[in-house]
Amino acid sequence: MAANGWRRRRIWALLATTAALGLTVTQAQASSGGTSPFGVRELRAQALLHQQQKGLSAFAEAGDDDDDGGEAQEEAEQADQYAEARTSPGIVAPGAYGAAYDSLTELPHTKGSWSDLTRLPYDSDDPRYRDINSNSSGGAGKVTGRVTGLAADNHGYVYAGSANGGVFRSRSGGGHWTNISDGLPALSTGDLQLDGRGRLWYATGEANTSATSFLGTGVYVLADPRKGSFSPRDRVGGDELESTSINALRFAGDKVWAATTEGVWSHSTKTSKGHWKLEFAPNPDYLPGGSLASDPNAPYKNITSDIAVDPKDPSRVVLAVGWRGGDTYNGFYTKSGGSWQRLTGLGDLPSNAEDVGNVTFARSADGSRYYAIDQSPEQTAENPDSGLEGIFVSKSGSPTGPWTRIATYQQLRDSGSALTGAGYQPGIQSWYNQFLTVDPKNPDHVYAGLEEVFETKDGGKSWSVPGPYWNFGFPCWSIDPGKQTGDCHQTVHADQHSVAIGSDGGAPYLVVGDDGGAFRRPLNGSADATGHATDWTSLNDGTMDALQYYSVGVGADPAGRGLAVTGGLQDNGQSELRPGDRVMGSNFGGDGGDTISDPANGCNIAQEYVYLAVSVTNNCAVNDGSWLTDPSKATSYSVAPPDNATGEARFIAPLNADIKDPNTWVAGGRHVWINTKGYAIRSGSEWFGAYDLGDGHTATAVASSGGKVYAAWCGPCNNQGFTRGIAVGNADGTGWHQLSLPADGTVPNRYLSGLAIDPADSNHVLLAVNGFSRKWTEGPGAGVGHLFETRDGGVTWKDVSGNLPDVPANSVVLLKGGTIALGTDLGVLVRTPGSKGWKVAGGNLPTTAALQLRTGPDGRLYVATHGRGIWATDVRSLR
Fold first, then answer.
1. What's the DSSP call for residue 739?
2. Which of 159, 206, 278, 611: disulfide with 213, CB 3.0–4.6 Å?
3. Taking a C-beta distance cutoff of 8 angstroms, is the pair 510, 521 a contact?
4. What gap in Å lies between CA 52 and CA 49, rounded to an integer?
5. Which residues have a Cβ under 8 Å from the Cβ of 379 and sit 6 or more positions away?
């Protein structure tokens, strides 16, 4: 027993709770008590699923070597991949999404409507699903998608801006949400701010440079947010801020300042008319229309993260400018003598380019304090544990300082953090996770958001962690299904993005927004002896369906009561909705990528984590956690194809089943992998390598019919030498060859995102193409069109886009009778046989990104939206 206890303590000493873009490790990595050495050896294979996240796993033994320490750099690479589909081979010019939306509004709608299937509470701690791959019992409770903007008043009204689902209003301090922005062309949130007149300002375009950030269409202002809803006529200025992302809005006198990915802009707050003024761009030649606008690095040359206004002189502002990955222009700037000058001599706050990255400012209400969080590009590149330079205070109240550092990542780590292992400590994702706010009545009371929520009540002399990353690893934790998270109190979801302080009836509260939605506690709340809060309330009651799905799977419920619907989510694992459920559960943890469900048995599920880390279950992953002491009781199995171990797959890699044989699967990395055992597969070694796409090439879409397989790929996949292609062959490994795509540009040199094969003829294939046509994309070979067709197996192709709006296309399906359904960044469009025109599918689907379309065994069409959940409609109504 003593030896076993030593081994468990050694495992915990080596534990690195790793997560990239919120990619959380599972209970298998986080559990200790009761796990025997035999169980550790048996479960080490499971831990290998997470090697892409770096750091030692919970099942690493003494003497195991760490990786190369490139965690932060790899996270940044992951962040780029989602944007590549829309921007490569160049950059997107202003006006692209606005023009697409205008075209969309001119199209007719089909009959019928969509049902929002996931507008239900989603319990990340559902006790039914405490399997080896689940994060259930972590402590976050009910969750939704990423909340990147928050505003609150003193009358109980809270406004939450989601990553790509728009703005929601609550009249009760959070919860009972109503969407107030569905009439806008962009539902991606950069910032939300209430001004002194009570107006709500909505900056579109999420600017945290994460993997799933969408561009915006500018800034909108709502005069009466308690009653009204946003409309396109509420836009401030012209199209100057279209196709940009906005980090922050700040008010100074009668001006509103916008920190964007294309410099710093300002506009009068007295009117919404007139153009935005470009105040400062460190590298103006790289802006759209500039001489270097087509340079591959142009998107990274004019990024601003925040703006600080001097409380004693509103005309004096300080700009925090710079790309999180580092550039010579990074630094702090202020205007002097009529021109913008780089600031130096700020005290502890760095002014050198190497240590100024993503920055957040916050000012006390009385003007006596300014606070700042600074991410260091140099630390991000070289320190395997954290990219945080520190948290700083200017006790003069001036944003020019002098500044004093009041927190390092080591101090935060030692204040009750859950992130204490090598390779993943506070601030490792400070390029992605930041918020900062000051108690209006106490300038020394500050909340800071990184991966976790931190608090100081004495101006930074001491810190606590009221919102730890999760409860795994703490002595109070237990997997007991009879409790949410053992004896621990509820915490918040990981990865903090936004914050607001409001009140109702004179009782002030804090609201935080993160990758799991919105959470509230009293501003001066209670905590236990470790500093962890005892009074968090989840505001995610299901009425804010902002879930960010990558995929959807549908199959008959084995109990014969209807259909089971599942899907993979950004940082919220895999949701499971079975007939009769009033609350969805989470049966897989981390990022949920692509999904396959058995049409005949919806509890047969194959779920991708990331980089083709595929797991399979035959019972919906129902488990009471008994696998902790008896590994044989685990009900999901790691079956990752070999490209997962080598890293030769995209972050969200394609996984699909043959449309005629649900037991034949195709997975795409550098290689095309085939599984013919279906849901009986138990090992990654059971995949068959059918074809090598080539060094540097990775699959972007796969499809199979009767054993004939198509695999689209890119490589390089960014705008520096972007190339793409399609390979065709048989599932048995014969007949493989690369298609010779037409040199005339019939198929554009853009990201190939979706394939659909005609069940009646495997030579008849539809191809969806992402990005924008060359009018908006400044890059070689961008071409035009978004939907292409071949009837001879890819020998020749035809552009069948017709009057399709010029908007990125993500997924395509060929429905019975020949109707085509296309999932785009602005919803779902359909075209019936013989028709030359497209229609918008239904009348009530939000104009958000439709990433995947699938037909269910019930004949309905299902769509996984990346921002507004899973919806379904009757195919017969799509005409």
1. -
2. 206
3. yes
4. 7
5. 355, 386, 387, 388, 389
Work out the number of other CB atoms within 10 angstroms of the CB of residue 212: 26
Question: Sign of dihedral through CA atoms 568, 150, 374, 388?
Answer: negative
Distance of CA 459 to CAs 38, 367, 438, Å? Answer: 48, 14, 10
Please report, for residues 572, 724, 747, 816, the alpha-carbon distance to residue 751 in angstroms, rounded to integers and kept in the order given: 26, 7, 10, 27
At a CB cut-off of 8 Å and minimum separation 6, what does 60 contact? 11, 14, 47
CA distance 548 to 571: 9
Number of residues in the chain: 879
Q: Which amino acid is at 50?
A: H
Q: How far apart are CA 664 and CA 51, in angstroms?
A: 27
How far apart, in whole angstroms, are the C-alpha atoms of residue 363 and residue 604?
A: 53
From CA 138, how far away is CA 819, in angstroms rounded? 44
Cα angle, residue 25 at apex, residues 452 and 532 outer, rounded to 5°: 30
Inter-residue contact 171 to 156 (CB < 8 Å): yes
Residue in this structure with the two tokens 């002030």, named with its chain if needed: 508
CA distance 616 to 303: 42
DSSP string, 655-675: EEE-SS-TT-EEEESSEEEEE
- Asked whether the predicted pLDDT for residue 28 surpasses 50, the reply is no
CA dihedral 792, 794, 798, 802 (to 10 degrees): 110
pLDDT tens sequence across 314-350: 999 999 999 999 999 999 999 998 999 999 999 999 9
- Contacts (Cβ under 8 Å, ≥6 apart) of 13: none
Q: Which helix (H) or strand (E) holds 691?
A: strand 688-692
Per residue in 588-611, pLDDT (tens digit) is: 998 999 999 999 999 999 999 999
Measured over the CA atoms of residue 741, residue 742, residue 743 and residue 747, the dihedral's sign is negative
Instruction: Please tell me the distance from the alpha carbon of residue 468 to that of residue 450, in angstroms, as a whole number.
Output: 10
- Return the closest-CA partner of residue 137 out of 490, 630, 633, 549: 490
Supply φ then ψ for residue 817, to 5 degrees. Answer: 90, -5
Global confidence as pTM: 0.92
How many helices (H) and strands (E) the chain has is answered by: 8, 57
